[in-house]
Amino acid sequence: MKEFFGFGGYEREPEGFMSWQHLLFVTLLMVAMVALAIWLGRKYRHSDESKKNKVLIISAILIDSFELFKIVLLCIRSSNPLDWIYNLPLFLCSIQLITIPLAAFAKGRIRESALDFVFIFGILGAIMGTYGAGNNYGSYPVMSFDNVVSGITHTISGFASLYIVISGMASMKKKNIFISFGILGSFCVLAYIANITIDYNYMFLMRGDGTPYDIFYNLVNGNQILYPIIVVVLFLIYISLFYYIYFLIKKKVSKPIQQAEAVAIAQ
Predict the structure, then answer these.
(1) pLDDT tens, residue by residue, 69-87
(2) Best exposed site among 65, 174, 207, 223 by fewest CB in 10 Å?
(3) How far apart are CA 195 and CA 200, in angstroms?
(4) DSSP letters along 14-74, please?
(5) pTM of the shown model
(6) How far is CA 114 from CA 160, 163, 174, 222, in A?
(7) What does the angle CA 83 – CA 126 – CA 168 come to, to the nearest 5 degrees?
């Protein structure tokens, strides 16, 4: 247990990013994530909103509890009492620590926007935080506290994203897209300020750190102005493309249904 929680440092060598151990572990997490989302989403799809919402409430409690436990343990494990400043919820995936509870407990347009934000970024965070987490799996053994908790929190985000769309909770109203921009932009500003203040890399705005962001970091030779701008622009492009693809799919799916209804009425 001491080795699993990393007290005194890990004695085992990391298996490595994209090793078979890494891929097997995160694939098992993803399979469980998708299976649970499909099962519960289909189960509650025709239920009232309060029943649907219970799943999100549990997801919100779990993701925040795991993250709080992680921060507390990392502070206990470290000899530096200020280590908590390097574990603030200022990564892209960390936004779900706030938006999932908002989706579960808020009301009105705030809730709608939070549901859409979780839907848009939850699955991306799950993939990036498991298969794309070169910073974690290149530094720690696969079966270690750091990677297990990270894997669980990222797949909870992915689960919530899939559950929201399968259960029919996503509104995806076009008027809310600017709220999504605002949520993301606010976190980017806070993350950038924190990075400058404590010399860290929240939201990967300063460097790639072994993640796919390294592609863009290397593309601009680590330029500290161009690189963060590219990262933020990529986020905004992703939101826009997500909305576009969602409505494109919705239109293609709904058109045959509308035609079938029109034929049935005519008959």
Answers:
(1) 988 888 888 777 677 788 7
(2) 174
(3) 4
(4) P--TT-HHHHHHHHHHHHHHHHHHHHHHHHHTTS-HHHHHHHHHHHHHHHHHHHHHHHHHH
(5) 0.84
(6) 11, 14, 14, 33
(7) 125
